[in-house]
Each structure stands twice: as structure tokens, then as C-alpha cells.
Amino acid sequence: MIRVQQDPFDPGAELNAFSAAVAGAGAVVSFSGLVRDVAGGLRAMEIEHYPGMTEKALAEIRDQAVARWALAEALVIHRHGRLEPGEVIMMVATAARHRADAFAAAEFLMDYLKSRAPFWKKEETGDGSDWVAARDADEDALKRW
Amino acid sequence: MQVLYFAWVRERIGVPREEVQTQAATVAELVEELKTREERYAAAFADISALRVALDQDLSEFTDSLEGVREVAFFPPMTGG
């Protein structure tokens, strides 16, 4: 399941629904990413994306994870638009028979959607606004898979 | 073909998308063609190692062919998650 949306969502409720739907799986792992504060005081984060390619890229990454770790299901929800500090940006959840596969698949999903899903973040502080630069470490993280 | 720009590439060029008529055979040729058009393109494409390209919504290389391609998108490295 892939969802790309502007509206806020409740990661707790999403996790409960996900867990209920995969009740036979045995292991569920979830991760949520929140808008963190930055030096200078973050006012807002603007997330731009590429409609069409975003859904396609996320579905491909999700399908790879499901196949590689024989997941019962994998969920990716990612927001775009204007978010305030503390708001939930995205979440992933994975369900497998055993926890090692669920953890590994969740990390794989996070590593890939950081560098391969077409989202761009812009931080707005009291000093103005600036695009968040991609980190070499994020690209390097893909090599372990 | 449709050419799309995202994030700071969009801001430098000043439009999110435009129709471009070109005979360029590869992405790199298209970039060279756009750079000669106006200063704003030259500024956006000054360092293509800082850019990524997608052809028909698949991440691609600057050396790739444009044959049959309908949509080209230029953007900085992605920052999802």
C-alpha cells in the first residue's frame, strides 16, 4: 500500500489498522519521520514532489521490499505540502513472519525512499528559506543493500 | 516534449514545466541546447553533477537517449523520508 497525500494522518491509527490487516504475520515494524527543529528556529517545511513519478517510485521500492523479505504487507505513507515542526512527514510499516525481516525491510524502505523517491524539502526559518541538500551518507546507505 | 523542473531548478528557470521542441538525441545534448537559450538555463544547468534526470518518470542518466521520450524532468538529488 502506497499513499501520497497533503493531509495529516495519525500514524498510531494507521499502525493499528495495518497490524489488524496482517494479523497472521507475527512481526510488525513501523517508522515515522517527523519535522525536526533546526538551528535558527524552523517555521515550516515545504515538501515538493513529482506527481506520478512519486507514486511509481514508491510502488517499485515497496514491491522490491515485499519480494526480497517475503513480507505479508508493506505500507508507505508520505506527505507533501507545508508542514510545521513536530508534524508527521511519513511512515513505513512492514509485516513479516519474523522480526529480522520486518526490521531489515523497513530500513531498506527508508534508505531507498530518502534518495530514490522524488521529494524535495525546503526549510523556512527566521533567516529565510533554503532547500535541504541531500547527504552523501544517504546515497552511501544504498550500497549495503 | 514536456520538460519539467523541480525544487531549486524550477526556481532558477522560473517555470515548473514547458513544451520544448528539440532535435537533441540525448539528455546531455538537450541540456547544452537549453543552456544556450537564456542565462537562467545556463545558471540552472551550470553543474549537472548536482542534478538528476528522469525520463518518462524513471530515474535516468544524462547520456541516455531521448528517442520516444515524452517527458523529461530535471531536479536536484532527492530528499524524501
CATH level-1 class of chain A: Alpha Beta
Strand content of chain B: 15-25%
Order of the strands making up the biggest sheet of chain B: 2-1-5-3-4
Under CATH, the topology of chain A can be stated as Aldehyde Oxidoreductase, domain 3
Assembly of the depicted chains: heterodimer
Pairing-aware structural class of the strands and helices of chain B? alpha+beta
Q: By helix and strand content of chain A, what is the structural category?
A: alpha+beta
Q: Number of helical segments of chain B? A: 3
CATH superfamily of chain A: Molybdopterin biosynthesis MoaE subunit
Q: Please write the string of helix (H) and strand (E) elements of chain A.
A: EHEEHEEEHEEH
Largest sheet of chain A: 4 strands, mixed
Estimate nothing, just give the exact number of structural domains of chain A: 1
What is the string of helix and strand elements of chain B?
A: EHEHHEEE
Question: End-to-end distance of chain A, in Å?
Answer: 22 Å
Give the helices and strands, then pairings.
The complex is a heterodimer of chains A (145) and B (81).
Chain A: E1 2-5, H1 11-21, E2 27-34, E3 42-49, H2 53-68, E4 73-79, E5 81-83, E6 88-96, H3 99-116, E7 119-125, E8 128-131, H4 136-140
Parallel strand pairs in A: 1-4
Antiparallel strand pairs in A: 2-6, 3-5, 3-7, 4-6, 7-8
Chain B: E1 2-5, H1 7-13, E2 17-19, H2 27-37, H3 39-44, E3 52-55, E4 58-60, E5 71-75
Parallel strand pairs in B: 1-5
Antiparallel strand pairs in B: 1-2, 3-4, 3-5
